[in-house]
Amino acid sequence: MQAVTERSRTTSIHPETRLGMVELTVADLDRQVDFYQRVVGLRLHRRGDGWASLGAGGEDLLRLVERAGARRVRGTTGLYHVAIRLPARRDLARVIARLLGLGHPNYPTDHVMTETTYLDDPEGNGIEIYVDTPEDGRWSFDDGTFAAWDAEGNPRSGRDPLDLDLLLRELRPGDVLAEPLPGATRIGHVHLHVADLAASVRFYHEVLGFDLMGIADRWGMAFVSAGGYHHHIGLNTWVGEGAPPPPEGSLGLRHFTIVAPDAAEVERLRERLTEAGIGIETTDQGLLLRDPSRNGLLVRSAEVARAP
After folding, report:
1. Is 241 within a domain?
2. Do 210 and 224 touch, CB atoms closer than 8 A?
3. Residue 213: Cβ-neighbour burial (10 angstroms; 0-12, 13-18, 19+)
4. DSSP states of 11-42 as a string?
5. Is residue 61 part of a domain?
6. Do residues 93 and 181 touch, judged by C-beta distance below 8 A?
7. Structural domains in the chain (count)
8. DSSP string, 72-127
9. Among 197, 183, 190, which Cα is nearest to 59's?
10. With contact defined as beta carbons under 8 Å apart, do 265 and 14 qualify?
């Protein structure tokens, strides 16, 4: 008989769970690879026939798969943005200075607990590039709405323009703005368009076991995470309740990756998914499945994620 462990009894996902590579369908691989290197600052790790993997020198963070003639379909579920987390404010300063120098539209924002900028790639995929700043304040989802306070307890909107004068003071003489993102760069979170907020929360919280960080019903959004992080997955109904999934082969999200710390945790999640009647495809990379809004996700162990 299999031993009953503390992890097998708990309903929460393992606190060391994090996000990994995001895979996108693209129409013009050359253009997208150039953008993610030259504008975003990722490195090209590998390239094959019709695909490319990029990152910051460690595990892959982004995989682009080309489908000629693929098009963007609006008003569907899918990716709102993929969020690239940097290790330090100086790294964000370098990214924003590079974007400003290139004249690429971006929207620096102060979320109190994070400092960030938003932009789109040439095919309309949303990108957030951010650094965590928990020392600057906190968020709350009390009474079904979002609220934020700075470190002194003053109310903040949580979406003020970022103080670029202050941020850019992080730069030092001789900093090379074209320098790739540092090796400690990770996928911090993904934010998804979903068709039904309650069903999505049930899937990610009650089935997979992510901790529910809050629901803002008035805004049609919710955050879930592992290990007390502000959010690993954002969910919203901003394209409309009941939004359909994009047609097969459309531009955008193929799947994002949930990285469990070990194979035992992957197996525990498989059991939970099976008990809930969720269809799973077992691949050499991990467990491939879809959430209630047909957004794709891959569950894999950290050992697989680090494999070359």
Report:
1. yes
2. yes
3. buried
4. -SPPTT-EEEEEEEEES-HHHHHHHIIIII--
5. yes
6. no
7. 1
8. --SSSSEEEEEEEEESSHHHHHHHHHHHHHHT---EEEE-SSEEEEEEE-TTS-EE
9. 183
10. yes
Q: Which two tokens stand for residue 161?
A: 């323009």
Quick one: how far is CA 46 from the chain centroid?
21
Please give the residue range of the domain that contains residue 26: 20-305
Give, for all 308 residues of the chain, the pLDDT tens digit. Answer: 233 334 334 579 999 999 999 999 999 999 999 999 999 999 999 999 999 999 999 999 999 999 999 999 999 999 999 999 999 999 999 999 999 999 999 999 999 999 999 999 999 999 999 999 999 999 888 777 888 999 999 999 999 999 999 999 999 999 999 999 999 999 999 999 999 999 999 999 999 999 999 999 888 999 999 999 999 999 999 999 999 999 999 999 999 999 999 999 999 999 999 999 999 999 999 999 999 999 999 999 998 655 44
Residue 2 domain-assigned (yes or no): no
Q: Is the whole-model pTM more than 0.90?
A: yes
Q: Give the CATH number for residue 67.
A: 3.10.180.10
Q: Is residue 100 part of a domain?
A: yes
Maximum alpha-carbon separation in the chain: 64
Please tell me what DSSP assigns to residue 207: I
